[in-house]
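Reviewer 2 asked us to include a model.

Predict the structure of this chain.
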Amino acid sequence: MKKIRYLLFGYQVAQGKVVENPSEKKLVVELYQRYLQGWSIKQLALYAEQSGIPYRENSDSWNKNMITRILEDERYWNGKQYQPIISKELAEKVLQLKKSKATPYSNIRFAQKKMICPVCGKRLNRNSQKNPVIFWDCKGCQNRFGPISDNELQQAITEKLRAICRNPQMTEPERSTNNSLFIQEARLTNEINQLLDQREVDTDRLLPLILECAAEKYKTCGIKESDHLTIRIKALFQEHSNDEGLDRELFEQTVKQVIPQPDGSIRFQLLNGKIV
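Predicted model (structure tokens):
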């Protein structure tokens, strides 16, 4: 069982007093210095693990969270609880470097969870390594979409929503599929009735037809549910027909997925399944 570390790494208790731990102190200083030299947090974690100095008792492993805590803990230099082992100048340089490397806040997080790959349908990951140039990567089929900045994506989403608000008829699904399903159901019903009208009913033929007809009726019930959903989201868009900006609540209530296109445009899959 791992033991909880109560003392800050780099210190120990000797003769009833908290003092520096020489080997741990040396490692802390090295972590700060190497970070400034360009080492990544992952590389520092591996280096600390290879040093043979445990972060806590009964565990030789290190991870990125441990390194991050050490690099951000002001107790190493403020002198309030512990004797400083890091100079304030070194600490400020490290904090400034960490801040410059931090991933900037994305103003399209509201849409991020709905971004999907148009090729395989898997969720897309926002790649900001070359910020402000943003790409969207698919781990499923390895396709990449972009570049498109967050502002450009938000503007595209806004324009798409406004276009649907101005023309709510766009929310209506194609009717040809519905008609074909009803025709199939009618055909099967006809065949069943013809078999039942015969003097000797062929049950071997009848049972599969009944099951197939039931399946078709289930599909048409699903279409009716979709129609109810279409009426609801169509009404929502009509209520926002005069919107000029982005209404995120409307977006949440009506849009299931955002699908970027190779030409830089986007498409929506609405909650009723319609793609616009």
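The first strand starts at residue 11 and ends at 14. Strands lie at 11-14, 17-20, 124-130, 133-138, 144-145, 255-260, 266-270. We have added this to the supplementary material.
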